[in-house]
Each structure stands twice: as C-alpha cells, then as structure tokens.
Amino acid sequence: MIVEEYGARDWTFICQHMKPRTAKQCRERYFNYLQPFLKNHAWTRAEDELLLKLFRMHPNRWALISQHFEGRSPNMIKNKARSKKFQILLK
After folding, report:
1. Domains recognised in the chain with CATH numbers
2. Nearest 10 degrees: CA dihedral of 55, 61, 65, 66?
3. CA gap 15, 81 in Å, rounded
4. CB contact at 8 A, 36 and 79
5. How far apart are CA 60 and CA 54, in angstroms?
6. 59-64 long-range contacts, Cβ below 8 Å, gap at least 24?
7. What is the pLDDT at residue 39?
C-alpha cells in the first residue's frame, strides 16, 4: 500500500497515484476503512449492546463513542448507528 511506503501525511502526493481520487478522498478512505488496526468484520452482539447504551447517553457524539471501541472508527460507528437494524433496536 502506498501509505505504508510514504506515510499517512502527504495526501496530495498519495492521491497522484490513486487517480481519479482527491487528496481528501484518499485521506478519509484510509482513516475510516483502511488503517491496519481497524476491524472490518461484522459487529458482535456485545458491540451492538455497547453502542446502543452509549448512543442513548451521547447521541451523535461519534468521536466520543468511538473511544469505547477498539478498532472501530467514528465513521464506522456513525454508519452502524444509522443502519436500519440499529434503528429498530433504538425503539
């Protein structure tokens, strides 16, 4: 991966190798989905329950909520909370 070679800093340079993506798109994609420590597998029941509890305490505070989840980005948490399955649990 190009980020491993050059580091996660110069997104303008990195996006030159990722046509037609912009620097912002490259950066967001990396931080939200491609970082090596992120978990991209299905959410566990325990994670669902924790998210439900934290969302009720701190609605829409994705960065704050993500501090309680190892390997989940704030964007992953926001997407999960806005999913239909999660919305059913909120009711």
Report:
1. 2-34 (1.10.10.60), 45-90 (1.10.10)
2. 130
3. 30
4. no
5. 10
6. none
7. 92
